[in-house]
Amino acid sequence: MKIEYFIRKDFLTVNPYSGLNAVKKELLEQSAMVVQNDEGIFYGILTTSDIVQNPKTLIIDCLSIKELINCELSIEDAIYKMDTAKADVLPVGENGKFVGLVFKNELYKYISDYNLELENIIKERTKELEEAIATKDLVFSIIAHDLKKPFNAILGFTNLLKNKIRNFDIDKSEKLISGMYFQARSTYNLLENLLNWASSNSNQIVFNPTPCNISTICDEIINQIGESAQQKNIAINSFHRNELYAFADKNMLGVILRNLLSNAIKYTESNGKIEIYSMPVGEFVEITFSDNGIGMTKEVIAKLFSTDLYESEAGTENESGTGLGLVICNDFIQRNHGKIWGENNAEKGASFKLTLPIYKKEVHNLHKTLALKSDSDK
To answer: pTM higher than 0.90 for the full model?
Structure first.
C-alpha cells in the first residue's frame, strides 16, 4: 500500500525565525511541527527529539530532516527511509512540493492491524475448512453406517419375499412388506435430514416465512409417518386451534415437526401415547410434543442440540440414530426466530417444546404498510 493514505495534513506550522521558547510548548504537545517561512516555503520539520538534542538552538538550526519523500512510496520503503534517517517522522512531497507528514508509528500500527486481520481471516478459513472436512467425514460415516444398515434389512426382506413368497400366507407377506416400508421410511427420513443439513451448512436453504396453520401441517406430518407409530401400536393425538398460525418458513417447519414426531415414536414403547398440542404464548406459538416413553437423563438433555453429533440412544425397538435431526431442528428454529428445549414429564416420558413467532394479520399488514411507506420515501 502507498503511504499517500497515511499522510497527515493537519499539522502545526512555525516560522523559522521565531524564538525557541515561542514554539517549545506547542511542539511538546505535537509529534512534529512543520517549519515554513512567511511565503510558505518549506524548510523542514522540527521534532521533540530536536529540542532535546539542541535545546538552546534556534529552530532554523535544529532542522534535521529536509528531504521530501515521494507520496507514491510504499509503506515498506517509507519505513526503510525512516530507519536510515533515524527518524520517526518524514515530510512527504508530490512533484517536489510539500504536502504533509507521515509517522512511523501510524505505519507500524497499520501493518500490525493488517497482520492481525490476516491472522483472523486465516483462523476463520481454517475453522471453516476443518468444519467442512468434519462434515464430509460425518456424512460418509452416516452413509456407511446408518444408511447401509436399513438397506441391508430391506434387501433381506425383499430376498425373503422373492424366494419364499409362494410359501407365505397373506398375513406373513403383509408383515414382511410392513417391515420393508418401516425401514424404507426410516432411511428416507435420515437421507432427508442429511440433505437438509448439508444444504443448511452451505447456506443453500432460502428462508421464506409465511402464515403456517399448525393444525394442518401437523395432520400432514402424522399422515406421512404415522405408519411408524402403527407398527408399535402408538396412539397419536393432535390438538390445535384452527385459527392459530405461526409466521415461519413452511418447509423448515415441516422438517422440524417431522423430526420431533419421529423422535417421540422412536422413544415410546409399544401401546404408548404421543400428544401434540399448541397454544399462543404472548407473541409466540408454543408447540409441544409429549410422550409417555422412556424419558431422558440430565446428560442427554444437556447435549440434545449440540453440533458435536453423537450416536444417540437406541429407541425402544433398537432404532438407531445420529442426533442429526435435533441439530437441524435447532438450526431451523433459530432461523425462524424461535426456541426449542426438551424436558422430562412429571409422571413418565419426555416433552419437546418449541416457540415460533405468531402470525397476526393486523400486525403483519401494519409492517407491510410501514415498509411500503419507507420505500416510497426514499
So the answer is: no
